Amino acid sequence: MASNSTADIQLINQTFLDQLANPSMAKSAADAANDFTRLKLREDGIYRKIMPPLEIGNDELDRSANSDKPMKLVEREVDSPAAVSLPFNSLPTNINIRGHRYPVFFERVASPRFYKDVNELRTYDMDIRQVLSDNAIKDMLAQEDGTFLRAVNTILGSINTPVTFTGATQWVGFSGGLSRINWMESKKILPRTFSHLETHTVLTNNVTVKEIQKWDRLEAGGDLSQQLLQKGFNLTELDNTQIVVTIKRDLVPDDTIFHFADPKFIGKSYILDDVTMYIERKAGMLEYYAYETVGGAIGNAAGVARADFA
Question: Do 243 and 275 have their domain in common?
């Protein structure tokens, strides 16, 4: 019998209700939902695809003199001065070495609290775990993605204006639409910074990516042009670059592509508490919500760029 059959789903829901009826088993119900929601996060989150997070524990946190909030200090690569030629019988100039660090602060992200009468769950034919994940996790994903892209836009500043931290223009406007020529021109943005980085991942939305599907045989080549027309854009890699396509057009505008270097050249992303589903039954009412404790920071402004096509 198929795993998503009505009988199987009703059995899952009943088991879920049985667990909630016994307070000692509430953690098992929460763990079951948590196993499912972690899969959804990896599948749907923009931020986690571009900067995959690392799980850390309390012993890896650092203390702050000004706050009790959890944080972690991350060391930035030391930029050594250039080598010089020296005459014999002489020594190089003394330079005091000093490393630089930047902080990663953590915050709790939580979904709204949902209430439901337990009796109303008994007649559901849908997988209740799917309902929980859809209702509780989507807002958390949007919060993570929105915070990340707002930070990127803050670093980039204004279009066609040099970035304060690098002196290079990393938000560039192009005329003529998203042609193959403009695609390649946009991939020159990151290499032109002092870090000389290449684009590792591009982020665009599901409307803008259709501009690539317009590429004819002269731009895409015969086989690829035919594939884009017959099967649509189903590529995960193009031009040796990972492609991330999102439906969140409020975060990634139309006719825009974000460029990101390899994650190790951007910054750090951490999980202190992974997604947890809090579930409690009071009398005949069920209360549940999801929460997590995460932190991230962009430690290298030269690792992000944006291209707008008009």
Answer: no
Q: How far apart are CA 109 and CA 159, in angstroms?
A: 31
Are 171 and 277 contained in the same domain? no
Per the structure, the complete domain to which residue 182 belongs is given by 157-268+300-309
Residue 212 lies in a domain: yes
Q: b vs e for 138-175, b when ≥16 Cβ sit within 10 Å of the residue's Cβ?
A: eebbbbbbeebbebbeebbeeeeeebeebebbbbbebe
Cα separation, 294 vs 310, in Å, equals 36
Residue type, 115: Y
Q: How far apart are the first and last CA of the chain?
A: 52
Q: Residue 194: which CATH number? A: 3.30.2320.10
Q: C-alpha distances in angstroms, 18 versus 26, 101, 121?
A: 9, 50, 12
- Under 8 Å between Cβ of 134 and 283: no
pLDDT for residue 148 is more than 90: yes
Lowest mean pLDDT among 178-187, 226-235, 263-272: 226-235
Residue 100 resides in a domain: yes
Asked if 286 and 71 count as a contact pair (C-beta separation under 8 A), the reply is no
